[in-house]
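Input record (one chain):
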Amino acid sequence: MVPLYNPAIEGPEEARSCIDQFEFPNIPCEYPVVWVRAVEAALLCRAVGKRLCDAHEWEGACAGSLEPPDYPFDLAKGVGPGEAVHRMQKAHNQKYGTKKAWSYGPEFKKGICAMSSRKSPGCGGGEWAKCGSNTFPAGSFPDCRSSLWVYDLHGNAAEHMNLPLNEGQMASQGSVELGYTEMKGSWFIFDTYRAHEDWCRWRAPFWHGSRVMDPKSHLNYHLGFRCCKTLGRE
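The corresponding structure, as predicted from the sequence alone:
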């Protein structure tokens, strides 16, 4: 794991949390685990003494600077989870939209990350029997890393994260009650087909939205995860 911190104001020894350097199982040269539900990702992280990351932690790992949590919880009050995520996403993306960056630099580039693969022949909407993971071994693209030395944040597998809709759902603050699903990063096909935005601090719509711990939370052939750990608490 590597420390999460803001290099402008602190050093790595002052980090309060860490993140897996590679996608789970966090082993270089191994393929990332996919076809895993958000609830399974959370339980697997817990089983190895870690936890699912909050969205802002993944974003900080990608952008090379962990900033304070940015969740406009006031926008989530009095509305359903789908509308709450929509409002919070819009506000967040407007705030950071003028400062777009990728883990490897300020502009999107092809050929840097694990994005040159293709769907398995016959793969349509994500059928188990027809869609392989089509991923690369972790760390196969050495330039696809952030300044905090976190790899494959773009390409390979997309990643489950925890999106809190109130302070009581923040894993980074010690909460065991997780919030809603957030899919981070891009995946293996983006060199030829950019399915959505994938800059570091971009937050997705309420795609396949559910509580993280919902037993029917989303899974897909290009969706994996990585874990975080709170220092001095877990």
